[in-house]
Amino acid sequence: AEAVLQKAGIRPEAFQPLRSGHLEDAWEWRQGGKRLVHSGQISGKLSAAFDIEMPVFYAEVDWDYLMQLRKEHRVTYKEVSRYPAVRRDLSLLVSDGTSFDRLKQLASHAETRILKEVSIFDKYTPKNDQQGRLPDGKKSYALSFVLRDDEKTLTDKQVDQVMQRLINAFENEGVEIRK
After folding, report:
1. Quick one: which of 121, 50, 45, 133 has its CA closest to 90?
2. Among 31, 63, 82, 110, which one is least packed by beta carbons within 10 Å?
3. DSSP 3-state of 17
4. Mean pLDDT split into 10-residue runs, the chain, 179 residues
5. CA dist list (Å): 144 to 27, 107, 112, 134
6. At how many degrees (to 10) do helices 156-172 and 100-110 cross?
7. Using an 8 Å Cβ cutoff, are 95 and 174 in contact?
8. Cα 125 from Cα 140, distance rounded (Å)
9. CB of 123 within 8 A of CB of 63?
């Protein structure tokens, strides 16, 4: 049921348990105050009445409503770039209160054109720090940045300039770059 909604580009507003006499572990997905999908496992009592020994699952989709919502969802297509992406990593020392989302936001504001992706591949917190390598009130993030120009191949100089802008943006927020 979730895969059908995802393929249709619909993110339901509510996903909640459902009481049902014939279903166990029943759930419903709602959109606009209306039930879009409900599903669950057929109760053991009902399965036994039909001599069914294996679990049976049920899902009901309001297809008319789904198609109505689907019409409101615009699918866009963009050609895959012919130019290669470049990946660079940075290790950052940040205050405990700094979130990955904040770092991603800073990076996105520092480079709007060729920064395509920011992801975290390591997080080191005081809980993991058995050797006392982190200063009090700090944690370490290792971030990966994917850069790509959709019109040409990036040069080392362009990549270095972007990375320096990212470093400057982080340092202006009190983030320390780890070597």
Report:
1. 121
2. 82
3. strand
4. 79 76 84 88 90 91 87 70 95 92 93 94 75 82 95 96 97 93
5. 38, 11, 16, 21
6. 130
7. yes
8. 6
9. no
